[in-house]
């Protein structure tokens, strides 16, 4: 009797998950909203150099990973501005910064063949990108570069996810 009751309770608990699913959806190439895209001008409004070049490269790589061709004559065009680059001190040791957080944000827009525009405001890494440093300036700069590239890659993934899946 106790085994039967356990099975009934387990079935009652698992049934909603089986019926409604887990929230994940599989997308095939046919479900993509477009086959190719042109990446237009990406302006860097920050004092950090070369962010626009890094973002252009990351966007190209991520679009290709998703099966979307990047072509200058595509009907869909992505353009935008990187508005924010911040290096925030998270912790310090003996009065010297020991851990930093990198924040990169921007506003982007997708211009569709019809002329309609989809705005993506405040795009950035959905994750906290941070790095530790020792007292050597060379290490701080090298770690900042790596963390900035990670934040840019995360930003590119977030932009593409907003364009494709939402």
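Sequence proposed for the structure above (166 residues):
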């Amino acid at each position: 009797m106790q085994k039967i009751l356990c099975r009934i309770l387990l079935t009652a608990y698992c049934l909603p998950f089986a019926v409604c699913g887990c929230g994940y959806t599989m997308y095939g190439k046919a479900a993509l909203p477009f086959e190719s895209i042109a990446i237009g001008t990406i302006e860097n409004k920050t004092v950090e150099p070369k962010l626009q070049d890094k973002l252009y490269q990351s966007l190209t790589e991520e679009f290709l990973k998703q099966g979307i061709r990047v072509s200058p004559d595509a009907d869909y065009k992505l353009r935008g501005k990187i508005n924010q680059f911040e290096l925030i001190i998270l912790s310090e040791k003996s009065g010297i910064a020991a851990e930093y957080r990198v924040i990169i944000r921007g506003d982007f827009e997708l211009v569709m063949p019809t002329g309609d525009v989809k705005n993506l405001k405040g795009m950035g890494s959905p994750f906290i990108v941070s790095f530790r440093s020792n007292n050597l300036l060379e290490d701080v700069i090298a770690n900042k570069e790596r963390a900035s590239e990670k934040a840019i890659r995360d930003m590119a993934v977030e932009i593409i996810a907003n364009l494709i899946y939402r």
